[in-house]
Amino acid sequence: MSLRFTEEYPEINGAFSFEVTRVLYTARSPFQKIEIVETTHLGKVLLLDDLVMFTEKDEFVYHEMISHVPLFVHPEPKRILVVGGGDGGTVRECLRHDTVERIDLVEIDEMVSQACIQYVPSLAGKLLSDKVNCRFLDAVEYVRKTSETYDVILIDSTDPVSVGEGLFTREFYRNCFNCLTDHGVLVAQSESPAWAPELVQSISRKLRAVFPNVHFYQAHIPTYPSGHWAFAFASKTLHPLKDYQEERYRNAGLSFKYYNSDLHFGAFALPTFFRELVDAV
Ligand code: AG3
Fold first, then answer.
1. Is the CB of 87 within 6 Å of ligand 1?
2. Distance from Cα 159 to the centre of ligand 1, integer Å
3. Cα 51 to averaged position of ligand 1 atoms, centre (Å)
4. Is 235 exposed, middle or buried (CB count within 10 Å of its CB: 0-12, 13-18, 19+)?
């Protein structure tokens, strides 16, 4: 009999299920249940409290889109703050930009990073880079107190339940705004417009209360609920399309599996229901 993992999708009273060949790691940290499993078709998968955080099969979509969209809009992203993102996928993508001098990763759960460094080096290996400074503490507290400033802040959080909850509040967005440099940009992973429309709308409302410019974009992530995923781009001055650094993209000579310059523009073209959702605030 084969072993399976099932993520419950309460939004639709349904579920997503796949075959597991081996449990590589399982632990209960002070914050959550952490598991890394090997699967037949999705590579290694990180589960936090029984929710899929990434699969090796499609993590490139999420990590490229949360990183390269803002990093190819900011004219010279040097200092980056990654909130959450303990698996290292976002850090890995940010480090591909020559302009990046330093990344602070503020992750609440050190055990997530340790486990990913040991079992999924394809994502977490770059956490050990000299340019990366990992701080294992609560980002809610961190942005309230720090005097550091950042060109780009990436909110690579879990869903807004338990440890993730504080990362979806207006107060948190306000404190992030205060940590940004003059042309600073924030991108927040923003859940599924298909299955969690109220949540996406509330993210829009809260960000718009703080930032003068807020634009949503989307990506196709097959192993997240509904496969239709939203990101919020919020900035002090920069426009995600008008300020696109096309030349830097061309000269960077980087190859991506999902991101490209057509898609940079295409991702901001939203289906009507999604546009109405985020504009109606
Ligand atoms: N953070 C977003 C995961 C959300 C998935 N939700 C779910 N499966 N219900 C991913 C972190 C990857 N660095």
1. yes
2. 6
3. 7
4. buried
Sheet strands (E) in 136-195: 150-156, 180-189
List pLDDT tens digits, range 131-169.
Answer: 999 999 999 999 999 999 999 999 999 999 888 899 999
Structural domain boundaries enclosing 51: 3-55
Q: Domain containing 133 — which CATH number? A: 3.40.50.150
Any atom of ligand 1 within 6 Å of the Cβ of 53: yes
Q: Does the active-site annotation cover 104?
A: no
- Pair (34, 129) in one structural domain: no
Element (H, E) at 19: strand 14-28
Which distant-in-sequence residues (6+ apart) come within 8 Å of 263 by Cβ? none
Tell me the Ramachandran region of residue 11: left when phi exceeds 0, alpha when psi lies from -120 to 50, beta otherwise.
alpha
Domain of residue 38, CATH code: 2.30.140.10
Regarding pTM above 0.90, the answer is: yes
Q: Which of these is catalytic: 87, 104, 151, 156?
A: 156
Q: What would the pLDDT profile of 105-140 be if each residue is shown by its tens digit?
A: 999 999 999 999 999 999 999 999 999 999 999 999
Nearest 10 degrees: Cα torsion 112, 56, 234, 204: -90
Task: Please give the span between the terminal C-alpha atoms of the chain, in angstroms, as a whole number.
Answer: 50
- Indicate whether 221 and 151 sit together in one domain: yes
- State the Cα–Cα distance between residues 53 and 46, nearest whole angstrom: 5
Note whether 88 and 124 are same-domain residues.
Answer: yes
